[in-house]
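User: Hey, my collaborator sent me this sequence without any context and asked if I could get a structure. I don't really work with proteins. Can you help?
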Amino acid sequence: MAPSSIGGGGSGADRYSTGDLRAIGFQGVSQHGALESTLKDLFVWVESFATESINWYSQEKVSKARWSRFLRLASVLLFSLGTVTPVVAVGMGWSKQSIWGYGLIGLGACCVAVDRVCGFSSSWMRYVSTAISLNRRLIAFQASWPRIEARVTGNPDVDEFSKAVQELVTFVDDFAMLMETETLAWVSEFQNHLLQLESGTVPALPSRSQ
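Assistant: No problem. I've predicted the 3D structure and written it out in structure-token form, which is a compact way to encode the shape of the chain:
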């Protein structure tokens, strides 16, 4: 799920305190009225928003990756032990103990189901891809900003200033759209899992090809 934009203030580490990335409160622009100073203030605000959003995704994917690896590794080990246990038990003459293999396989299936329902693996992949896309957009915009700023500095009139501000608005809109797309993917996945739970169905286990 994408970071929420509730609240108004906070920056840096404080913005991670609740697990959500809160919106950056706009502190206002330069009081001197110079277009160059105002534009610089706007750019700093936009850049802070973009940077903190990327940092949120980069930080949140760590716990998702940890749980995904743990559950997937546990499922592989449990499935393997569950398959081998009956063979070993029969070979050792412990036929009654072979039933434990089914229990191990069941626990392996539970690990897969927990991962599917909680979305650890899918969230991990979404966060990684979203962070990469956002970072690419930010780098491209940062690289083009000196050209935009130089255009306003060389011709500091309202028209050039308006064009520069519009480019900032376009960047923020495209940036936010990527986060909105990720959030909608999370909502769709979560709703699907709720329907599966309400209908009593179990998330499908991975095929052998996976």
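In plain terms: The chain has one domain: 33-197. You can pass these tokens on to your collaborator as they are.
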